[in-house]
Amino acid sequence: MRAAAQTGARARGPLFIVGAPRSGTTLVRSLLAANPGISIPPESHFVSYLHHRYAGRLDRWRPADSRALARDIADDAHFRDWGLDPDVTTTEVLAANPGSFAETVEQFYLAYARRENKTRWGDKTPHYLFEHETLLRAWPDLLLLNVLRDGRDVASSHLAFTRKGGPWLARSAPSAAIWWKYSLRQARAARARLGSRFAEIRYEDLVATGGRALAAVVPAAGGLDELLSERNANELYDREDVAWVGKRLLASEGAYWRFYSRESVEDLLARFA
Q1: Spatial distance between the Cα atoms of 45 and 127, rounded to a whole number of angstroms
Q2: 44 pLDDT band (50/70/90 cuts)?
Q3: 212-257 pLDDT, tens per residue?
Q4: Domain spans of the chain, in order of start
Q5: pTM, rounded to two decimals
Q6: Which regions of the chain does DSSP assign to beta strands (E)?
Q7: Which CATH class for the 1-37+121-126+136-231 domain?
Q8: pLDDT tens per residue, range 121-166
Q9: Helix (H) or strand (E) holding 77
Q10: Any alpha helices (H) in 96-238, and if so which ranges?
């Protein structure tokens, strides 16, 4: 199998999982969140727009700004999906006396991590790929993990999700292709900008290796191989999605996917049957 993951990324600072929508970022979050060392809440969405809102105060941050930002986060609909009590969490955040925008936001992630008895935090919000400069200004030591999936399957996933009532995805293959192509351009820009703080992994490699390819690209996933060997890896996958990918591979007759043998795909489907 071709080694598609970029290795050598540093394991310090927060981890942000990004990628074109419908590329498999949720699978990556599930795999990493299963690791006892890192906590990744549901998608945040608020980091980028609040950073722009507070842009004029970043260089002269005051306690009043931390209080205002904490209220804004606690009132955000996406934060409510984290399942934390807004008032209790706000009190905890401000008790830590955060001295900047990044420190204030980080305290909310740490509150979620404490609930899971974990120490390191991460985020899975795909569109932050387009806001990597914003993230870098807030956390210069971040690690950005881009999930790359074949554009044809990304488009198919857009259309399938739209048919199920997904309100915000592309409603045509050309629209999905444009979105995917723009994501690739942003990923290239992020790679050039971040250097060793950028990592990339293929969705197809995750599926074909049972998720173990992740440990080669994200140091935070160290121990993931042992973790998966001790539990049923099927718990971490959408079984229909795995079967769909496998059947597409088999139907390609070696042309659609150039990196996997027919035998390996048949074995994959047998294990997830």
Answers
A1: 8
A2: very high
A3: 778 778 776 666 655 555 444 444 444 555 555 556 555 544 433 3
A4: 1-37+121-126+136-231, 41-118
A5: 0.79
A6: 15-19, 38-39, 120-124, 143-148, 198-202
A7: alpha beta
A8: 999 999 999 999 999 999 999 999 999 998 888 878 777 766 666 6
A9: helix 77-80
A10: 101-115, 132-138, 151-163, 173-194, 203-208, 224-229
Beta-carbon contacts of residue 231 (< 8 Å; ≥ 6 apart): none
Q: Are 29 and 232 spatial neighbours (Cβ–Cβ below 8 Å)? A: no
SS3 breakdown of the chain: % helix, strand, coil, rounded to 5? 60, 10, 30
Kindly report, residue by residue over 54-63, the tens digit of the pLDDT. Answer: 999 999 999 9
Q: Output the furthest CA–CA distance in the chain (Å, rounded).
A: 62
Yes or no: say if 216 and 200 are a contact pair by the CB < 8 Å rule: no
Could you tell me which of 221, 12, 29 has the C-alpha nearest to residue 125? 29
- At 181, give phi and psi (nearest 5°): -65, -40
